[in-house]
Amino acid sequence: MENISTCQNKKDVILANVMYLTYLDSNSWLVEIGRQRILVDPWLVNCLTFSNLDWLFKGYRTQQHPIPENLDLILLSQGLEDHAHPPTLKQLHRNIPVVASVNAAKVVRQLGYTNVTAVAHGESFILNSSVEIKAVPGSPIGPALVENGYLLKELETSLSIYYEPHGYHHPSLKNAASRVDVVITPVVDLTLPLVGPIIKGRKSALEVAKWLLPQVMLPTAVGKDVKFEGLLTKFLRQQGTVAEFRSSLQKHHLTTQVIEPQPGERLELQLQPQVVAS
Questions:
Q1: To 10 degrees, what angle do helices 242-251 and 204-212 make?
Q2: In this structure, is residue 2 part of a structural domain?
Q3: What is the CATH number for 63?
């Protein structure tokens, strides 16, 4: 994309839209927007298991990434270990502010975090007068619990991100008041026999692209420098590829750019600016 600078004439002000995104593998991201550093769903140390059942499922990293410093916020979409990973959260300072789903907020409070805001669907949080974070319905966890997705908007420029790590996109997103510039979500399926997709990407990513018309989409959830073992992994099947998703966008005449991030690489996204009256 072309470099964009801030300029002004007699009629309009064109606001530069720049953000930085670092993929930390699995569901973990460092988002730099509105001069704020936001760590999303971190799993960065030790192994990943669920309820200590490593015989059933265990994830480990083949490449370590340092825990980011100088954080302004930790943002958690779910309370499960692959989003609110206790060993990682124990490595972070307990006074870092946390915004979380109701379920994830319970996890970090039990770990001793002192500044925790639980946001229900439709509720918003303003970070340092710079970034609005709005919770939207996300992934269902069992029959009674729906976790969070998030819309993040830089207040100065309206630069925006939508994040949902399992590919469950609520129809209310179709009524978003303004465009969404960047979408972070899966673009492939991970399925289990008799259960179906536990991560939805093939159809749902195309659907949300039609709704939000983002400039950029970045795949998440399917790790690159992580390995999984255990009984459950013998039945997991991946369906779809990033290349197939790009082809689907083209077939539907969508100009969204798909960037496949490399773990640890800090991406600078220079996006088409919005024009506001001066």
A1: 40
A2: no
A3: 3.60.15.10
